[in-house]
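Hi team, as promised in this morning's meeting, here are the two structures we talked about. I've kept the exact order from the run log so nobody has to guess. The first one is mostly here for context; it's the second one we should focus on when we meet again. Sequence first, then the predicted structure tokens.
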Amino acid sequence: MSASAGEAALPPPAAAPRSRLARFRDSDLWASFKRSKLAIGALAVTALLFTLAIAAPLISPQNPYDPAQLDLINSNLPPLWQAEGQAPFLWGTDDQGRDVLSAVFYGLRLSLIVGILGVLVSGALGIALGLVAGYVGGWLDTLIMRVADVQLTFPAILIALIVDGVAKAAFGGALDTNATIGLIVVSIGLSFWVQYARTVRSSVMVEKGKDYVQAARLIGLSSPVIMLRHVLPNVTGPVFVIATINLALAIITEATLSFLGTGLPETMPSLGTLIRTGNRFLFSGEWWIVAFPGLALAGLVLAINLLGDWLRDALNPKLQ
């Protein structure tokens, strides 16, 4: 009896810790995603376009960046389903003999690279300035916010054009392709940092008065450590929403710069460069040169925007 009583008094074995994937599948965010057919469709389209961009060298019939694979005899061929279409040019060719389908795949790749890097630059700059402004306060907060207010009076595309024009005037023709891509990334980053800074500043001003921040100060942690290790993880929720929406804006900005002739060169075309090239032939009947890059750009931006709208609503506690 005593042995049985002792065994009954033993505490139950501790449950194994759940993985992050298991916790995510039980979260409200996952439940909201499964209920939204629009979000599921947007994610499917986004994932498909990302996959096509990543696998472009493997699945493209032609490398549109390799002059050795281009032949002017194949220029301005219509899509394959039309009478004058030729294999393997499913979506036809442009004025240089480039396969439009391959150019769209590679253009997606460049547009996504520039857009993602632009979001990383703008996010890093805006988050850093927002943390400093919200945590330090005082004259530094006033200075950063007044600069942000002044920049908000200008359209983002105008800021990007100014930065791009000043840099090209300073360096002249010394910029190669990689330097041009870097310049466009910096231009986009300097155009969209304000949203991150204002959002992070507002969240930091709420967080810095909480008990965990006061406790970190009492044990002697420095301000940079408190900001990066304790405050920053608690203000990143809205940042993800802004980054998702700004990815679409960054891709549009790059396409606009390329369409205006100040973006990527025609030797490494993005979607904007392809649209600019096709626009010259639109009224002569070669509609496919501009139509397919335009549809790819519209589909990519629309899918990312729909994901951003869903994420904003899913993370808003007032709509739960």
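And here is the second protein, the one for discussion:
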Amino acid sequence: MSDLPVIDALTEADLPRCAELEASIFADESPWPLSGFVAELRAPHNRYFAVRTAEGAPVAGYAGISVLGPVGGRECEIHTIAVDPVHRGARYGWALLETMLAVADAESAPTFLEVRTDNRPAIDLYERSGFRVVGTRRNYYQPSGADAFTMVRPAGGMSDQEERP
């Protein structure tokens, strides 16, 4: 038996669980309501994924990426990655990130994201996956006023010499 998580497409049936996780994980940062998840999932340029402990299990985490721009000039933007605190440390966030980066790599697109400047575990994960800080957005997260780093991973990702987690 494998202890690897199952990654699949997020469905509308999963969204109430996502909104529940969002409210608990991001309680101080204007969590997305259920209607926000519905709109994100329905947008044709977005791809959302779920991580589960097993096939058919409830959502243990979720992530979303947009593919923007014309063919040959695409850019991707990671909207969110969230993992139920019960499953943190099990590499679920990494599995979701790798899934989204495969979408970007298939489009030969650079990938952008924002991350709290004080979220060292997430920053470390992104740096190990080829992202680098390119700017700071002051007071990005509301209502807390926390700053965010803007990070980018070039199209095609990392060189073969760089280490992955």
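Starting points for discussion:
The radius of gyration is 15 Å.
DSSP finds four helices and seven strands in the chain.
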